[in-house]
Design a protein that fits this description.
The chain contains 16 helices and 8 strands. The protein is mainly α and 465 residues long. The strands form 4 sheets. A two-stranded antiparallel ribbon has the order 1-2.
């Protein structure tokens, strides 16, 4: 049974970590498309219209893979996690229903108008459709993170005859982790979209292919990241304080902190270490005195509970994985801040001139090579978030072992292998089409269609306006 549970966890991890690659870009690109289409309507600069058409191709390709890859996730709640669905389904299933009916259907319903409505609906109606696609993608992230945050810090429910019954619906939605979980994920999605746009634009700038055109998209993404990158660092710090308050075992595992500090004595922070869970200590560590108290409580002598002072049955597994996954994620976040402000400095030095910016080839290459890093950071963040919640599937209320379906290891292994092959095919297909999109570039001869609005004349007839 334990082998089957571990395999089910591995299968869900594989499908979730593959699927999450796509929604984060869909959200970021959709918001970017709203920005460039609004700029086109405001300035009448045809370049912004061409940007909207160019980047929307990548959005629809990404959206398609995201939809297909996400279907197996929800099925697993019934096939692999029937115990969880039975106990927590009253709230969790309701939230997933909101995500499907309120968010996904909104996005899917308007994406056709956004793609094929040029010249068929008015320009204002088309912008509205693009806004609805961005809103649908954003609402999807909101409801998914509400569900996941509730699993991290359950609220508004009581255990009654083996089922979690909702007693306060709003408290369950706005649970302690929800504001930070939603904000952290949403800003990560916006960052991912901005870095993909900036990285692809930098690629074209390096090739000196339509530099004036791609400088516009690069500039929009840069200005967004000057705000988003430091904002994400602040959100990460604030959510870390919440983790130590609501999930002390996860916080201690992330930092390799084994022993609770005494009164008036700050907890040291391990910059680098090798946690040894069997021995309940670090084999070695490079530490900064009092710094963990500052990070966890914003106080020099704040009390931070050590992992060794908790029951082993309640400790997260794979502490070295948590320790280094968190540091990779945080390190990437600080690199984003550095790159954004380094580029802003170079841009100001170049006085906004394209030719002067093109001379900074190392800087442009840095943007191209940074494109995978938002994805790496998101994956590391999910590892920390989900592995750190173990051994609970609903923190403090339902253990993972209690939520699993009674399956044979062979059944789970077969489905896991099938999903793995399916996802490899999807990934290869995506890269083939994305490469074609990148090589084709933007059509700079593309002209905006005429606005097809019709108005009634005084006789009740209609004419083209």
């Amino acid at each position: 049974m334990q082998t089957a549970i571990d395999l089910s966890r591995g299968q869900f991890a594989m499908t979730a970590m593959f699927h999450i690659l796509w929604p984060i870009l869909s959200i970021g690109l959709a918001v970017f498309l709203v920005a460039v289409e609004a700029l086109w309507l405001k300035t009448r600069d045809v370049a912004y219209y061409r940007h909207a058409r160019f980047w929307s191709k990548l959005l629809v390709l990404n959206f398609t893979v995201g939809v297909v890859s996400g279907i197996p996730l929800e099925f697993q709640f019934g096939t692999n996690w029937a115990g969880f669905s039975n106990v927590a389904g009253e709230f969790f299933g309701n939230i997933l229903g909101f995500e499907g009916a309120m968010a996904f259907m909104l996005e899917a319903g308007f994406i056709g108008i956004m793609l094929f409505g040029w010249g068929r609906v008015s320009r204002g109606a088309h912008l509205f459709a693009t806004v609805m696609v961005a809103l649908g993608a954003s609402l999807s992230a909101f409801w998914i993170m509400v569900a996941n945050s509730w699993m991290q810090t359950p609220a508004g429910v009581t255990l009654d005859n083996g089922r979690l019954v909702v007693t306060d619906y709003m408290a369950a939605i706005f649970n302690p982790d929800m504001p930070w979980g939603v904000a952290h994920m949403y800003v990560a999605a916006l960052e991912t979209g901005a870095f993909v746009v900036a990285g692809a634009s930098a690629y074209y700038l390096l090739r000196r292919r339509h530099p004036e055109f791609f400088f516009k998209s690069f500039k929009i993404a840069l200005l967004a990241l000057v705000v988003l990158a430091p904002l994400q660092v602040w959100i990460g710090d604030s959510s870390g304080v919440e983790v130590f308050r609501e999930q002390p075992a996860k916080g201690a595992a992330i930092e390799g902190h084994w022993h609770t500090n005494g009164p008036g004595v700050g907890a040291p922070w391990a910059l680098l270490a090798w946690p040894d869970q069997a021995a309940q200590k670090n084999d070695w560590a490079i530490e900064l005195p009092d710094m963990l108290s500052v990070l966890a409580t914003h106080s020099l002598s704040g009390r931070v509970i050590g992992l060794a002072d908790m029951p082993r049955a309640d400790q997260p597994p794979m502490v070295p994985l948590l320790f280094y996954a968190f540091r990779i994620m945080a390190g990437i976040g600080f690199w984003f801040v550095f790159l954004a402000f380094w580029t802003l400095w170079a841009w100001r030095k170049a006085r906004g001139k394209v030719d002067a910016l093109l001379a900074h080839r190392k800087l442009l290459w840095a943007w191209v090579l940074t494109v995978p890093l938002p994805y790496v950071a998101v994956e590391m963040g999910w590892l920390v978030r989900e592995v750190g919640r173990q051994p609970w599937i609903v923190y403090g209320l339902l253990r993972t072992q209690q939520g699993a379906s009674a399956l044979s290891p062979y059944t789970v292994s077969a489905s896991m292998a099938m999903f793995a092959v399916f996802y490899v095919v999807l990934l290869v297909t995506f890269f083939i089409f994305a490469r074609r999109w990148l090589r084709a570039g933007s059509d700079l001869s593309l002209q905006p269609p005429q606005d097809p609005r019709r108005v009634l004349d005084v006789k009740g007839g209609i004419y083209e306006h």
